[in-house]
Amino acid sequence: MNNLRNKVQLIGNLGLAPEIVSFENGNKLAKVRLATNDFYKNAQGEKVQETQWHSLTAWGKQADVFEKYIKKGQEIAVEGKLVTRSYETKEGEKRFRTEVVVSEVLMLGNKEQEVVEN
């Protein structure tokens, strides 16, 4: 059960092309926003779509996959862990950001599916 302590699995579509950051030591970071959709019926019986946006970060091999193969709008499945960090704005306000650090990514929506594990 230790593997279930901080584990997130999401399937959704990329809102924008991945932002890739390359570091001097050769390591790469990919930052993406993933949209997941939920559907339900309201009191009038109408189908309603609710979209949630998730911030993802991927390092190393996963960042390479995002850079080379994953495009805006593409459907993917990710697994990772939730991480919350804080920072200060230029105005001195403390802000918090929660993101999913990706350990595995699976490309969906085409015949060839590739899994990349950390």
What would the keywords be for this entry?
118 residues; mainly beta; OB fold (Dihydrolipoamide Acetyltransferase, E2P); 1 helix
Structural summary, described in words:
The structure is a single chain. The protein has 118 residues and is mainly beta. It has a single domain, classed as OB fold (Dihydrolipoamide Acetyltransferase, E2P) (Beta Barrel), CATH 2.40.50.140. The protein is built from one helix and seven strands, in the order ββββαβββ. β6 (94-107) and β7 (115-117) form a beta hairpin. The mean pLDDT is 90.
In short:
With 118 residues, this protein is mainly β.
Q: Into how many domains do the coordinates divide?
A: 1
| N-to-C CA distance | 20 Å
Elements, N to C (H/E): EEEEHEEE
* Biggest sheet character: 5 strands, mixed, barrel
Question: How would you summarize the topology of this molecule?
Answer:
Elements: E1 8-14, E2 19-22, E3 28-41, E4 47-59, H1 60-69, E5 75-88, E6 94-107, E7 115-117
Parallel strand pairs: 4-6
Antiparallel strand pairs: 1-3, 1-5, 2-3, 3-4, 5-6, 6-7
